[in-house]
Amino acid sequence: MEYPENNLVQMNAQKPKINIWMILVVVVLFFLSSGATFAYFSYKESTDERTIYKSFEKTLAIKTVEVIGGVEQNIKLNKNVNRDKYDVFSSKLDTSIDKISFSYSSKFDYIMDLNDHKNKIINSKGESILNDDPSTLSKSEGRSFGKDKVYVSYLNVPDRNNKLYLDRIKGVWFTFGNDFNSEDSFNLLYDFDSSNLKNDVFDLFDDIKKYPDENIEGSSSYHYAILINKDKVKEKFEKYNMMIPPIAKDLDESIIQNTVKHFNSQLDLLKPIIVEIWIEKNSLYINKISTSIGFNVDDLEGGFNMFLTLKNYNQPVFIEEPKEAIDFRQLYSIMHGNPVYNVINETNYKNNLNDQKRISNIKQIQTALEFFYTGNNKYPIVQNLKLGIGDAICLDNKGFGSSCISPYMSLIPKEPTEDKFFIYTSKDGLSYTIDFNLEEGSGGFQAGPIQASESGLKQ
Fold it and tell me: Are 188 and 323 members of one domain?
């Protein structure tokens, strides 16, 4: 069959038009489907973020809650490594810990009534153990009815402390108020401003992954994994630490600043931090949190495992105030085998407070010295130096001095009694000693000479 030439021309001219329309339709459908897919995942992501944010908002606004949790720490260091580099993972002030490897675990149970900001009611139970050694088991219970009414009872005391007569106070309730030398700790707990906490916590999130829902203690719960931004952690850690000096007036601000620097450097040794949370669907309260943190270095093995279970939100809390309790000022008398007196010798009481202050001051100085060692690979080399006076008013990168630039400690605390001194000595910079005396005994130590060193305190 023959077609007129002009018809062939027309047919050839129409074919491209059909192809163009088909391509346009395909392109439009592709973009529509891609847009729908993008919109779906964007909506899903924003929904997950809104769920988590709302959950944090509700959880931080609770009035009562029970928190059950635990922390496990397992560390193994290469024998040839400089272990001072990883001081943050071990306790240099506790010679019972093997520096090569150790495991530490603790459990706790808090019941809290937070209705009154200034008079939080808290019941806490805790226990800890080192290297699964029963002789190191420590168990205690605390009850707080505001910072002026705080009670503590020791249910089990490590056997290694029996020489300190701590077994005599097992199960005895002691009470103390804000005239105790730990007043700063209570102020931090009761006066802490948490108004921006939920925004600050949410700001730490780098990425969120949704896992299948799970059943947590009978409640259907959303399950999320959250990647934490370590740079943001550093920023928030500094922010909240710098809120401490106005409250904890006895704490040297330089110590806090160097703590922040040290924390930041150690944070870089950690592998990516992932926190898992479970959110109860109906109430949107957080009912479980867990995280496992490992180390990002070749010569260090182990890590931290932490878990929290939150329950009994906004339920009535009944915490009984101990009917019989002994004033904390009689603690040292009992530990030393003396009877409990109704009227305390005022001189002994003041001496005991001075002893508490001595130990607190020494521990701050030790912290500053560890920061110095980290930056200089040695301790300040000097002998029989009286700390807190003359050429030992502060500590910076050059050592002790009467004035310091960028200090590790801007004002070294003095011995609380006039004409007595903390005496510092380091002959080679590899170790040091600080000699001082206790008048009545405190912190598990009896009256008499005490020596502090890079290994801790000993008598």
Answer: yes
CA atoms within 13 A on the CB side of 191: 14
Residue 280 CB coordination number (10 Å): 21
Separation of alpha carbons 144 and 322, rounded Å = 10
* Cα(437)–Cα(333) distance, integer angstroms: 18
Residue pointed to by tokens 């300190």: 164
Number of C-beta neighbours around residue 214 at 10 A? 12
Is 297 in contact with 78 (CB distance < 8 Å)?
A: no
Q: How far is CA 100 from the centre of its chain?
A: 23
Instruction: Compute mean pLDDT per 10 residues along the chain, 459 residues long, and list them.
Output: 40 43 48 47 63 87 90 72 47 43 83 75 87 83 80 75 58 66 48 66 88 91 92 86 64 75 81 92 92 76 86 86 76 54 49 77 87 89 93 92 88 88 93 90 78 86
Q: Is the CB of residue 308 less than 8 Å from the CB of residue 67?
A: yes
Where is the domain boundary, 272, 302, 332? 332
| Domain count of the fold of the chain | 2
| 3-class secondary-structure state, position 400 | strand
Scanning 66-165, the segments in alpha helix (DSSP H) are none
pTM of model > 0.85: no
Residues sharing a CB contact under 8 Å with residue 125, sequence separation 6 or more, in sequence order: 108, 109, 139, 140, 141
Please check whether residues 352 and 316 belong to one and the same domain: no
Task: Return the pLDDT at 80.
Answer: 57
Cβ neighbours of residue 440 closer than 8 Å, sequence gap 6 or more: 332, 348, 351, 352, 355, 447
Alpha-helical segments (H) within 268-403: 331-335, 346-376
CA distance 133 to 156: 14
Q: At what angle do helices 230-241 and 253-267 cross, to 10 degrees?
A: 170
